[in-house]
Amino acid sequence: MRGEFALLKQYLQGVIVGQEALLDKLMVALLTGGHVLLEGPPGLAKTTAVKALADGVHASFQRIQFTPDLMPGDVMGSEVLDPTTGRLSFVQGPIFNEIVLADEINRAPPKVQSALLEAMAEKQVTAGGQTRSLPALFLVLATQNPLEQSGTYPLPEAQLDRFMLHLLLDYPDESEELEILRRDRSHHFGEDREKVKGSLAPETVLAARRQIAEMHVAEPVERYMVALVTATRKLEKYDPEMAKVLEIGASPRASIALLHATSAWAWLQNRDFVTPEDVKAMLPDILRHRLAVSFVGRSQQWSADRVIQRLLDLVPVPVEA
User: Fold this and answer.
1) In this structure, are residues 90 and 77 in contact, taking their beta carbons and an 8 Å threshold?
2) 41 and 150 co-located in one domain
3) Whole-angstrom distance, CA of residue 216 vs CA of residue 112
4) What residues does the AAA+ ATPase domain cover (predicted)?
5) Rounded to 5, what percent of the chain is helix, strand, coil?
6) Positive/negative CA dihedral, 62, 68, 73, 76
7) Is 141 found in the same domain as 17?
8) Contacts of 120 by beta carbon, 8 Å cutoff, 6+ apart
9) How would you write the pLDDT of the chain (321 residues) with one tens digit per residue?
10) Is 15 among the domain residues?
């Protein structure tokens, strides 16, 4: 089974130049069913990466372009009057797909962003007094441009917490950008992409998720995860000078997300157990959107990522795991 996911990774590498960390974390999301928020300036292949992931899995896919005039019904669906019967019937919206790309999610108003909350948290949609289940593979991959860009709205904290991972993308280096130019000019990878497209069945993904859920995690590693997450709520325990750096720490949902993500990460490394190094690899993407830096913290040049790195330095790593 791991071999099939290795082929999927090769396919993604054939589509996206560089961005190895992004591709690895997208694989983690697929293997856990955890939603992902991708953030970066326009033009860094966020949409392309998500579309490539969907192409590599034989699953239903829908892209939703978020705009300021989007309405909740445009995403979830709505009841429509049938003129022949005079009855209302529910027409499903694009959210009823296995992989959903919410493109530029922070360009839609808060009421639309909030409408996604139930779908992301419960994998269901309630409309017209009836609750409808979403597909078992259901996964939301959202992209957003930095909030400093004009015409954007900050995501509600409750919705941010529903994203397992918050991935930050940066510009490619010169050699990678040169390769992007060459690929664009030659279209050399078009034929290879068609060969691999749809090779991974949703049933295989769900079977891998069951394997990952049974991954062995030693108690010292579990305690290390909990210590890192709870440290965000009591920074003064580890460094008195950081007492007022954060307004909000991470909730227990962060610990659960960390457990699932590290299990999938270890599985992708061909191991059946989780190590402290797996925890260190996944922690920044798990926590950065769950921490709110205070005014005091910002005045002292603290950021969520800097706090996370400081905690990794301060919280003792288990010797035996």
Assistant:
1) yes
2) yes
3) 39
4) 32-173
5) 50, 15, 35
6) positive
7) yes
8) 35, 140, 159, 162, 163
9) 788 888 888 888 877 777 788 888 999 999 999 999 988 877 777 778 888 888 888 888 889 998 888 888 888 888 888 788 888 888 888 999 999 998 888 888 878 877 787 788 888 888 777 888 999 899 999 988 776 566 677 787 877 888 999 998 877 778 877 877 777 766 654 544 444 455 688 888 999 999 998 888 999 999 999 999 999 999 999 999 898 999 988 999 999 999 999 999 999 999 989 999 999 999 999 999 999 999 999 999 999 999 999 999 999 999 754
10) yes
Number of domains in the chain: 2
Q: For CA atoms 57, 58, 60, 63, give the dihedral sign.
A: positive
Are 164 and 287 contacting, i.e. CB atoms less than 8 angstroms apart?
no
Boundary residue ending a domain (205, 239, 259): 205
210 lies in some domain: no
Question: How far is Cα 230 from Cα 315, in angstroms, rounded to an integer?
Answer: 11
320 part of a folded domain:
no
The per-residue pLDDT of the chain, averaged, comes to 85
Please report, rounded to a whole number, the percentage of residues in the chain having pLDDT higher than 70: 93
Which residues fall within 8 angstroms of residue 306, CB to CB, at 6 or more apart? none
Q: CATH number for the domain including 235?
A: 1.10.8.80
Helix axes 252-268, 20-32, angle to 10 degrees: 110
Phi, psi angles (nearest 5°) of residue 12: -65, -40
Q: By residue range, what is the domain housing residue 278?
A: 215-314
Tokens 């990794």 belong to residue: 312
Q: Which residue has the tokens 């919206």?
A: 93
11, 193 in Cβ contact below 8 A? yes
**Could you tell me if 232 and 185 lie in one domain?**
no
CATH number assigned to the domain comprising residue 8? 3.40.50.300
237 and 193 in a common domain: no
Instruction: Indicate whether 239 belongs to any domain.
Output: yes
